[in-house]
UniProtKB/TrEMBL annotation:
It comes from Listeria weihenstephanensis. The active site is at residue 258. It comes from the Bacteria. Its EC number is 1.1.1.22. Belongs to the UDP-glucose/GDP-mannose dehydrogenase family. InterPro entries: 6-PGluconate_DH-like_C_sf, NAD(P)-bd_dom_sf, UDP-Glc/GDP-Man, UDP-Glc/GDP-Man_DH_C, UDP-Glc/GDP-Man_DH_C_sf, UDP-Glc/GDP-Man_DH_dimer, UDP-Glc/GDP-Man_DH_N, UDPglc_DH_bac. It catalyses: UDP-alpha-D-glucose + 2 NAD(+) + H2O = UDP-alpha-D-glucuronate + 2 NADH + 3 H(+). One of its GO terms (molecular function) is NAD binding. Residues 312-414 form the UDP-glucose/GDP-mannose dehydrogenase C-terminal domain. This is UDP-glucose 6-dehydrogenase. SMART domains: UDPG_MGDP_dh_C.
Length: 440
């Protein structure tokens, strides 16, 4: 089928390329002419393993094109995906201005009955609102289908072809059947439901995953006080199929463009409906505190005097395999350390430039792990990149002024660190190798 996808960000681009890969003729439309020009040369604006190969393959197969001209794109397509951003507003609610702008463009561009497929994460009730919004501006019949995405950054290409389910929400059976046909090629179970339920499935799924993460982080904090190793606790818990081992990895909390935004938006949705969603408020607060955990430990180790201390950040991306630093713990950590007068050097295989763009000359970007560790008074493990996991322990002792490693992603082994004579703290085990339990 001929399909148009509006928006070539993480969601739109991966969705468009995947639809082309399963055989549809897809035109991805974006207002950013530079981005479109790059995409036409199979250059992706986002770092996503495997995406450029898929772009090139489908352009060469004649199934994938990129354009800035929505009107031309929709002339021979009756299915238009909306995949534009819904960033968060000051009060935490979703900013729908980009969606409304795109919806307006759809209304002004189409020349036939059209099914609008909303991929963007939108507050419950938005799909129904958008259907009216567009229908009031065009004589053609508008159907709307809510099709939230569940892709994870860094593994989006894998997730789009191997997801657990495709959710389709609609109040129009014909549109639902059309979208079932569109998605047949993925061979992924399709869950059909109403508009509001589909919108809520997205928010509730992300909020639940965030809750799992904040829960295991709180258990980790308690283990530091009463004993127990969070890695063992998490493994033992995860063997219960009702709990499951995924999203049960303690660390310095969640970041990214989704969990922080979607938990706040869901809280606002509840508040706007007159419901006080206490649980999600605790999840959000617990995560905020967890992102600063390493700084707390560092302060207690250096008696709150970090002035002039050289601190190495190992990783700044919000997770491995992405260049994305949105809402990452690293940004919060850097801000706090700078405020304490510390000197910051960062290393990240792909996201360093994005962080440099935020802090400029206030931080140093090291080109190698050796360089970031050189003469450091402490090393903070912030992102569990493979190459950070593979650092040889003697590198810490040979390069650092004070071999002190604070492990925010449970990457290293405390017994091996002890043998190597390195002062080591890890979330959820706690004690520094100086055998001074750190109670904070
Ligand atoms: C998330 C959802 O997983 C995905 O379904 C949705 O479509 C978008 O939001 P994403 O934010 O890309 O995906 O990455 P994810 O792998 O979920 O990690 C989110 C954050 O949680 C990262 O900062 C990661 O470090 C953290 N995390 C994840 C943990 O701290 N512990 C875990 O066990 C898992």
């Amino acid at each position: 089928m001929n399909i148009v996808v509006i928006g070539t960000g993480y969601v739109g681009l991966v969705t468009g390329v995947a639809l082309a890969e399963i055989g549809h003729d897809v035109c991805c439309v974006d207002i950013d002419a530079f981005k479109v020009a790059q995409l036409k040369k199979s250059i992706s604006p986002i770092y996503e393993p495997g995406i450029e190969e898929l772009i090139e393959k489908n352009i060469n197969a004649g199934r994938l094109t990129f354009s800035t001209d929505l009107k031309a794109a929709v002339t021979d397509s009756s299915i238009v995906y909306l995949a534009v951003g819904t960033p968060q507003k000051q009060d935490g609610s979703a900013n729908l201005e980009y969606i409304e702008e795109a919806a307006m463009n759809i209304a002004q561009s189409i020349s036939q009955d059209t099914v609008v497929v909303v991929k963007s994460t939108v507050p419950v009730g938005t799909n129904r609102y958008l259907k009216k919004f567009i229908q009031n501006k065009t004589p053609y019949k508008i159907s709307i289908v809510s099709n939230p995405e569940f892709l994870r950054e860094g593994v989006a290409v894998k997730d789009v072809f191997h997801g657990d389910r495709i959710v389709l929400g609609a109040d129009d059976d014909i549109a639902l059947e059309q979208l079932e046909a569109v998605n047949q090629g993925f061979q992924i179970p399709i869950f059909k439901t109403g508009l509001e339920s589909a919108e809520m499935i997205k928010y509730a799924s992300n909020a639940f995953l965030a809750t799992k993460i904040s829960f295991i982080n709180e258990i980790a904090n308690i283990c530091e006080k009463v004993g127990g190793d969070i890695r063992e606790v998490s493994a033992g818990m995860g063997m219960d199929h009702r709990i499951g081992s995924s999203f049960l990895q303690a660390g310095i909390g969640y970041g990214g463009s989704c969990f922080p935004k979607d938990t706040l938006a869901l809280n606002q949705i509840a508040k706007n409906s007159g419901y006080d969603f206490k649980l999600i408020q605790s999840v959000i607060q617990a995560n905020k505190a967890q992102q600063l955990k390493l700084v707390k430990v560092l302060k207690s180790h250096y008696n709150s005097d970090l002035k002039g201390k050289q601190i190495a950040l190992l990783g700044v991306a919000f997770k491995p395999e992405t260049d994305d630093i949105r809402e990452a713990a690293s940004e919060v950590i850097i801000k706090e350390l700078l405020w304490c007068g510390a000197k910051i050097s960062i290393y990240d295989p792909v996201a360093a430039a994005n962080m440099k763009a935020v802090f400029g000359e206030e931080i140093h970007v090291a080109e190698t792990i050796e360089e970031v560790l050189y003469q450091a008074d402490a090393a903070l493990v912030v992102t569990e990149w493979d190459e950070i996991k593979k650092i040889k322990l003697e590198e810490f002792s040979s390069q650092m002024k004070h071999p002190l490693v604070l492990d925010g992603r449970l990457v290293f082994d405390k017994d091996q660190m002890k043998k190597a004579g390195i002062s080591y703290y890890s979330i959820g085990t706690g004690e520094l190798q100086l055998n001074e339990p750190v109670y904070i």
